[in-house]
Here is the input.
Amino acid sequence: MDKKKMTELYRTMVRIRMVEERIAAEYKYDEIKTPIHLSIGQEAVAAGVCTHLKKDDYLFGTHRSHAQYLAKGGDLKKMIAELYLRRTGCSHGRGGSMHLAAPEVGILGTSAIVGGDIPLGTGTALASRLKKDGKVTAVFFGDGAADEGTFHESLGFAALKNLPVLYVCENNHYAINSRENRRHRNLNIAQWAQGYGIPSRKINGNDVVEVSKNAEKAIGLCRKGEGPVFLECGTYRWKGHIGTVDDVGDGFRSREEYDYWLSKCPIRWYREYLESIGLWDDASEKALREQISAEIQDAFLFAKASPKPSPDELMDYVYAS
Amino acid sequence: MSLKTVEAVKNDIPVTDNKSEEDRVISFKDAIFEATDQAMARDPRVFVMGEGVDDPTGVFGTTKGLQDKYGTERVFDTPIAENSLTGFAAGAAMAGLRPILIHSRMDFMILSLDQLVNHACKWSYMFHGQVKVPLVVRTISARGWGAGAQHSQCIQGMLMSVPGLKIAAPATPYDAKGLLISSILDDSPVLFVEHRWLYKTTGRVPESLYSIPFGTGAVRRPGSDVTIVAVSYMQKEALKAAEELETEDHISAEVIDPRTLKPLDEKIIFGSLAKTGRLIIADTGNRTGGAASEIAAVVSEKAFSLLKKPIVRIGCPDAPTPASEILEKAYYPDSGTIRREAIRLMK
Here is the structure.
């Protein structure tokens, strides 16, 4: 990987983290009137995969897709405006945090039905195969989605048709508060994919270098017509399923487990790595954070100053026109 | 025409007024086939997928031979995975193609409601029209021959409450072709409701391509005493009942075919009621919460003053379909049911 790409990966992760921390900080003011699902702690997966996608490659995501939206090149101002449910939002205030779209960079929408985006992304890959347009689709979903029928139906079909689709399972070990071992017996989801005849790997989703290397290879295979490929990326969400709480202790996750994963912060680890090879220092960190802070500030000012939808738009686009 | 470069195919298909002079007669089934064949020939984005679409019988003949003509990439068999199949088709539609997904029994589409209702039908609205889903879902129902509770359902009424879905329910070969063309041209998901008891019926169908606008019903038989709105196959039963009512009972029934349930041509129903003041609505599905209930509600809200008598809904009772031929006969309404209700309304 060239040096520019290595620092770019770091920038992508820090930007996602800082945006989501700001969202969390603003949430208490009740001006963001939509459920939010933060991916703080999981940034390496979106960053490592999306860095290898082209602008017109397709991406589908879930209710927890701020990271993918930003990593794929979605406009930050439009995303924040969507959280404020403004007309300038990426879904014009129709979707909220769970339903982001940016067709101009291949994001055709995110679904808040667990596993719901898997068939859709398989479908765009089917279209790419029929059109021979060389595009690859990346579909992101969590370990909870592996329990859904759509997961199994889609993998079977994509393997049958050799579709150019990269399935990215972000295994953060929880579906809301249900731990994976309470939901299925074989905890190696990558093995399930292998059962469908799909090249598959279980990797460390908190190591952006490992994610990036595997994604590059996977996307290359898809582009050559040798898809689909499956990556199970082990990671951890620092926040609870929804909102800004941590869901630790009192019947939730154990403090030990939580502290362990915080010690595995993908951003801190990668920064130390970049510093160790002389690609990063305190000055570059300061400059980066100042630049991103200014961008985030602009986005929040833009969102809060944007107009809200008007009631006479209520019935627009029920049907396409 | 290379599919890779096709962004749009110019729509030069005429909208018809149902007054074509052509007198070629073909069956309902052949009209479906011809519409699919011609749509695929003119637009490389159109493709056909579904369980068994390429088998020798070709979905009761409606897809027979299409794979030989258009290849295995545009006409293909699928896994038995109705929900995800719907999502694959919706995703392909989002990427600019025009899929036709076929369920050879309407019952099977119940497995697909997540991808249809939660995804395909909401996508345009949730993303403010930025992503379109030009998807056609063809479903085929039938009745009789002991098909039982899971091979006989007509759930179009249930699906009328799904925002973002259009529903066509043709009852003539002419409408089968024209409405299927309209459905393929449409940029929104369309449920195309077919009834196998109509498949062998014949009628005048132009060879050329034509489309029929959604939301335009047709008066199939003029009358002045009672209005019968009949959906899909119930058209046949309604026309038979109207004939008997005239010759046996001296009652003049006007038979209206809504042709599409969503959008619904309300005006044609109100216009008829202005003459008759009596309304019977006959649907192939269950009466409770069904298409007849919705149409009755619309009339009650908007045209109550035109009614001389309470509205009569005719449909299947609130029970699953039995297999026994004795129980089937008791279960399904027919021309006799419609005739009895018309006579009662005239008393």
Observations:
- The mean pLDDT of chain A is 97.
- The beta strands of chain A are 58-61, 107-110, 137-142, 165-171, 174-175, 178-179, 200-204, 229-234.
- The interface with chain B takes residues 58, 60, 91-92, 94-95, 99, 101, 103, 108-109, 111, 113, 116, 118-133, 149-150, 153-154, 156-157, 160, 316-321 of chain A (CB under 8 Å).
- DSSP finds eleven helices and eight strands in chain A.
